[in-house]
Task: structure prediction
Amino acid sequence: MGTRLMHRTTRRQSLTEAGAAFYPKAVQILQLLQEAEQDVAADTQRVSGGLRLSAPVSFGITHLAPALAEFRRQYPEVTLDVVLNDRQVNLVEEGYDLAIRIASSLQPSLVARPLMSVEMLLCASPDYLRAHGSPKHPRDLAQHDCLVYSNDASAHEWQFQQGQEQVSVRVYGSVQSDNGEILVAAAEEGIGVVRMPRFLCQAALDSGRLQPILTDWQLPTHTVYAVYADRRWLPPRVRALIDFLVARFGE
Result:
């Protein structure tokens, strides 16, 4: 510092005039630093701040919206930016804290927590089945108009299992979309066969607008995941939402 702050001998130490002036200010700086560290530590534990979330449109409306309302009641200091889009967003590049994805498998680079299982169904309208016949075996689907969900990794390759027999069928159709509700609506209008989660087509099944087909064959179960980029630096607000969704959808 360019000046002596202390007198030091073998028996005692004492402050110089400059040291006496410097000491109380140094103590004040250390106290401010300690308070700043305590504030940062408190912030890292408090569940607050903004959280950006991506989710599929249909699942977001039917399942996620009520859950997020309850989450906000429990954590009123968290603000939510919810983007409903069936496209699989890039979490890091697009600035998302969390994404909800429905899939049979995920990229190994992602960190994910399973939330719930989703039953997949194969359906068609009564009019379509009267006009084209009902498939008796999964391989018959190669001759049918199959409506394809383009965001699915296995969009054109439909898998089936019956006991020990496993069948993979390459399907094609006149309509494909990245939105499941459009495909369900097209199936209701008699356009073709649709493969969708039960929660998307249950109302049409209940009303008779769609009928399940190939019910003696199992389709791979899909899982709803909460997906995030890095488990090491997870803010408390993100961890709180993940734990909340696991508890809610796991009930």
User: Anything to note?
Assistant: Residues 38-44 have pLDDT under 50 and may be disordered. The helical segments are 17-45, 57-74, 126-132, 180-188, 198-207, 236-249. DSSP finds six helices and 14 strands in the chain. The first strand starts at residue 6 and ends at 8.
